[in-house]
Amino acid sequence: MGKIEVIGLGAGDINQLPLGLYRKLTAGKNTIYTRTADHPVVSALKQEGLQFASFDRVYEENQQFDEVYEQIVNELVEAAQEEAVVYAVPGHPMLAEKTVQLLLQHEDVEVEVAGGQSYLDDLFTTLRIDPIEGFQFVDGTSFQREELTYRQHLVFCQVYDAFIASEVKLTLLEDLPHDHPVTIVEAAGSEQERIITIPLEELDHTVELSNLTSVYVPPASEDLLHHTFSRLREVIATLRAPGGCPWDRAQTHESLREYVIEEAYELIDAIDNEDDENIIEELGDILLQVMLHSQIGEDDGYFTVDDVIRTVTDKMIHRHPHVFADTQADTVSDVYKNWEELKKEEKGETRTSALDGVPARLPALAKAFKLQKKAAKVGFQWEKTHDVWAKLEEELQEVREAIAAEEQEEIEKEFGDVLFVLANLARYYKINPEIALNRFNSKFVSRFSYIEKQFQNEGKDTATASLEEMDALWNQAKERE
Question: Averaged over 83-100, what is the pLDDT?
């Protein structure tokens, strides 16, 4: 098995290199491998006659950083099979050095980490920050936006060229204003130390970057974090806390029920109107209901929003084994089938009827649709749509007979039968009757409002207008659509 000794070159010049590491580097006769030759210690040691083989070329040969690191590791392991290898990296080997982490995980090579000086102490001193206040250290070449915590001191390392600086800038601009101050620190603690604070928007085109460059983002104020979940949670908790809003403090799960329904319908209206701005607002109102109910649960000591999120996350992973496991689902129908089977598994024996699980307070038309969907899953449905149409004709005839007999209660019952069949017919054509009827309700309001406006413009009263006049304007409104 080959052996690789990893040595950290520190973050500054050769004067910062510990004597023991200097001796290790200068004692050997073999070529020293280094991730990059762009480092002041490498330059100084070259002047003393040491030979270095850098991997700078690998960065030019690959498009992705992961590919770069993999190739470096593979070449080092291959070289180590022939002779012991010394591998020098910037800074400390155990600080933001992906190649070292990959080497430590490799089974075909023994890795010894000889240490090195971390630049973090000098960085904290230069920036005059105390990491105990909260500190996040991020690799500029490999991070996700959702990982960033703007309430803490935030430092990006590995920002060694304009491309990486641009990626960092564009990500930060998703959350911070263009003039948010960022500080660029070069060679912290060395004689070449340079520090400059600039607006975020200038990060990738105003300064020279190198392997010794870090970017510091100071903690953001609360008013810049209103788009974050943690800030929303704080606001809701404050509203419900002693000294908060009397209305919010007085709410219960029961008192908020009507608002959940109301906000859901307002969202549907926004979707039907294809109004993106309003969709955003109405989704926010629905999220507000979730947060209020979750805060009530937390205040009462029963559950928190974390429990709500954990439950839905577990459910989504469990019910999508074709995404998160090895189950096959090539069509939408396959997904539905898997979903229902997993749903039964989750519910266990708690449901004794195929119709269980339909909300009692669901609007009647939507409830009829839901009931028939559930019955159909166990085979209780007509095979062909013409049978449903025939059933509709049968129910209409029974309505006519009840009307002829002037039996009011019977008329109501038969109308219920007709509506139930219509809901079932909608299901056969994959139409949600509640949404379909709501769409026409909106259409009716729009057309009737047009009629009223036209009469108003002519100084007429709709109450005295004839049906023919109103019908003509109705057709005009229909044509305008």
Answer: 90
- pLDDT band at residue 399, thresholds of 50, 70 and 90? very high
Q: For 401-432, write each residue's pLDDT tens digit.
A: 999 999 999 999 999 999 999 999 999 999 99
Could you give phi then psi for residue 171, rounded to 5 degrees?
-70, -45
In contact, 181 and 127? CB cutoff 8 Å: no
CATH no., domain 2-117: 3.40.1010.10
CATH for the 229-303 domain, from 3.30.980.10, 1.20.140.10, 1.10.8.60, 1.10.287.1080: 1.10.287.1080
Among 15, 19, 59, 79, which residue's Cα sits nearest to residue 7?
19
**Other CB atoms within 10 Å distance of the CB of residue 466:** 8
Give CATH for domain 121-224. 3.30.950.10
* DSSP per position, 137-202: EEETTS--GGG--TTSEEEEE---SHHHHHHHHHHHTTTS-TT-EEEEEESTTSTT-EEEEEEGGG
